[in-house]
Amino acid sequence: MNSLSPTQVTNSFPGFDKLFQWATDRGADIAHVCVAENKLGIKGIFATKDFEPGEQIMYIPGPCILTSNTARASAIGQAISEANVADQSDHAYLAMFMLADQASHISRWHHYYNNLPRDFTDHPLFFEEAQLARLRGSRALEIIYRRRFTLQQSYQAMTDALGDTFRFTLPDYQVARTAINTRCFGVNFGGSDQVAMIPIIDMLNHGDDDSCQWGCDGDGYGVWAKKAIAKGDEITHSYGQKCQQRYFANYGFLRESTIDDECRVTIQLDSYSPSLSAQMALLNISQPVIELALGNDLNDTLEQVMPLLRIAASEAGLQDEIELSGEQNRARELAALSLLKTALKKKLACYQVNNQPHSRFAGTDTSMITAFLQREQQLLRNYLEFCSQGESKLSELA
Questions:
Q1: Most-buried pick from 10, 73, 239, 396 (CB within 10 A)?
Q2: Can you identify the CATH homologous superfamily of domain 262-396?
Q3: Domain spans of the chain, in order of start
Q4: Nearest to 341 by CA among 313, 383, 304, 307
Q5: Predicted pLDDT at 6
Q6: What sign for the dihedral angle of Cα 168, 172, 177, 183?
Q7: How many other CB atoms are found less than 10 A from the CB of residue 223?
Q8: How far apart are CA 154 and CA 67, in angstroms?
Q9: Cα–chain-centroid distance for residue 10?
């Protein structure tokens, strides 16, 4: 649990005093929270009084909230719509509005913009190539490169459509989109689903044992205590169920919990097998390759993937209704486990071998990469050991 010293009940960073005053002047209820650094050196929201379960912690009114509908109705939003830019996402409209609005120097959200990150050098999207090279073998690398490509395509579409009116660089656009991606909320105001940037509330850090719940309240957005929160405790909420690759690639950190950890392996079918066409039909695939997502619950995952592996490994007896002898069943199970073991070993061989042990799950980008890769590789090894144990048990039945 991250906590403040008993005497600290005000913001640790002067810039946030102006933001808090700006929000308060517009009707925000934020009198009993402050911004401070947690034990990992990350800014977060802390309680300055005790909260009971169900008690309101914060409320941010509509005039403080920046929504995608506001962005779409703006001058630059209308220009994007009229130009029929390919990227019509709420995130794209918000990013373009925020960039144009900041440049105007007369924005309603001036104090909010001043407290947004100026860069994301510790975020994987902005890693140098040498850092990304260490991620070789991980699906996170694919997510990062795909995200980079998507943002480059979006930026180019904006540039082509808006011409001289577009004054922002690709790094500007990437930073704005990353700020939105890591901070935005899905909201529904007036029956309209939107994406929103909600000042101060958007500084709540993730917590597996989260202490609050949130939601729309009239034309504003509120946060309530899920459980008792002591004065000085950091207030956290859950960013949702996502595998560790998405937490790492999208938010730039790792969850302490491993419950949603996942790794993926590729199974290559035998292209020369006489059963290939039947196998592909049963697996409903157009290419002789299947990708398996292996979750943290080994028993549950293997129960789901073993039927696929049996088909992929079988030379005969593909249909479930074909009755197999005990020995045929044992041979099929062994072949399926062997296929998975081969895929696991190939996946492990893709990783670099120079990732040194690391004990923390946050900190510098180098240590975070190390911790992330160790968790991925450990899950693969767990499956490898599980398969070996299964093979041993089946061999004893011979």
A1: 239
A2: Rubisco LSMT, substrate-binding domain (3.90.1420.10)
A3: 14-65+198-237, 66-196, 262-396
A4: 383
A5: 40
A6: negative
A7: 27
A8: 20
A9: 31
The residue among 223, 229, 285, 296 whose CA lies nearest residue 257 is 296
Nearest of 240, 265, 259, 235 to residue 250 by alpha carbon: 240
Q: What is the distance between the alpha carbons of residues 85 and 160, in angstroms, rounded to a whole number? A: 9
pLDDT score at 360 = 37
SS3 label, residue 59? strand
Cβ 53 vs Cβ 226: under 8 Å: yes
Check: CB of residue 228 under 8 Å from CB of residue 52.
Answer: yes
Q: What is the pLDDT of residue 40?
A: 85
Structure-token pair, residue 333: 């199970």
- What DSSP element (H or E) covers 7? none
Per the structure block, which two tokens stand in for 85?
A: 């830019």
- The class of domain 66-196 in CATH terms is alpha beta
Q: What are the CA-CA distances from residue 280 to residues 308, 309, 315, 329 (Å)?
A: 10, 12, 13, 21
* d(C-alpha 394, C-alpha 238), whole Å: 42
pLDDT at 396: 81
Residue 293: Cβ within 10 Å count: 13
**CA-wise closest residue to 165 among 76, 89, 69:** 76
Q: Enumerate the β-bridge partners of residue 302.
A: none
Architecture of domain 14-65+198-237: Beta Complex (2.170)
| Residue carrying the six token digits 């509509």 | 62
Residues of the chain with pLDDT under 50: 4-8, 317, 320-321, 354, 356-364
Would you say 173 and 155 are in contact if contact means Cβ atoms under 8 Å apart? yes
